[in-house]
Amino acid sequence: MALVYRTMMQLSGILVSFLGWVLSCLTTYLPQWKNLNLELNELEIWTMGLWQACVVQEEGGIQCKDFDSFLALPPELRISRILMFFSNGLGLLGLLLSGFGLDCLKVGERQHELKKRLLLLGGIVFCVSGIIAIVPVSWVAHTTVQEFWDETIPDIVPRWDFGEALFIGWFAGFCLILGGSLLNCTVCSTEIHSSSVHYAAAEVQDHCQHLETENRPENLRA
């Protein structure tokens, strides 16, 4: 029963982490990090991502233009590119490490300690990947709020607002952290279960030795 529960926890953890990794990759390339609604032309919505700016028209058309220079971007977008790439790379590494550490995988099934370490390391990498994914999303959201409430900008100037990619990025980071935590919990529960089994076995062995001592012939004649 404990083995089935641990296996289900491991599969749940790696599936949630995989979902978070896919959403993190999607967040990296979505152009909806910021949205801008123009009051003078309500038929158009401007969006900005890490790679391009787009104009979405009400008729359903969309036109996008890639940014010409990396150095010309605002600091938060430049660093967000690097952090999102780093997060996606760590997420892929976590998938490989934790995948080889699953109990249901027959590869290296006799090397229990190695598989346990791989699973633990994969869970830690997932958590780090989730934190790194949340940082750029939160940074862009923070600068967007600051610019939105900046009193030095005239009221007639349109303000950028949160885009859908920010919410997807927050959810992706949460899934990565949750999945990594589930994997680490399965490793900890395995250690607790193993120690309890060893303790119970030691108690049984001591009890058997005590019975053998009492049932020796010299003890019975006494």
Automatic annotation (TrEMBL):
<keyword id="KW-0472">Membrane</keyword>
<dbReference type="GO" id="GO:0005198">
    <property type="term" value="F:structural molecule activity"/>
</dbReference>
<dbReference type="Pfam" id="PF00822">
    <property type="entry name" value="PMP22_Claudin"/>
</dbReference>
<keyword id="KW-0965">Cell junction</keyword>
<comment type="similarity">
    <text>Belongs to the claudin family.</text>
</comment>
<dbReference type="InterPro" id="IPR006187">
    <property type="entry name" value="Claudin"/>
</dbReference>
<protein>
    <recommendedName>
        <fullName>Claudin</fullName>
    </recommendedName>
</protein>
<keyword id="KW-0812">Transmembrane</keyword>
<feature type="transmembrane region" description="Helical">
    <location>
        <begin position="79"/>
        <end position="97"/>
    </location>
</feature>
<keyword id="KW-1133">Transmembrane helix</keyword>
<dbReference type="GO" id="GO:0005886">
    <property type="term" value="C:plasma membrane"/>
</dbReference>
<feature type="transmembrane region" description="Helical">
    <location>
        <begin position="162"/>
        <end position="183"/>
    </location>
</feature>
<keyword id="KW-0796">Tight junction</keyword>
<dbReference type="InterPro" id="IPR004031">
    <property type="entry name" value="PMP22/EMP/MP20/Claudin"/>
</dbReference>
<keyword id="KW-1003">Cell membrane</keyword>
<dbReference type="InterPro" id="IPR017974">
    <property type="entry name" value="Claudin_CS"/>
</dbReference>
<comment type="function">
    <text>Claudins function as major constituents of the tight junction complexes that regulate the permeability of epithelia.</text>
</comment>
<feature type="transmembrane region" description="Helical">
    <location>
        <begin position="12"/>
        <end position="30"/>
    </location>
</feature>
<dbReference type="GO" id="GO:0005923">
    <property type="term" value="C:bicellular tight junction"/>
</dbReference>
<feature type="transmembrane region" description="Helical">
    <location>
        <begin position="118"/>
        <end position="142"/>
    </location>
</feature>
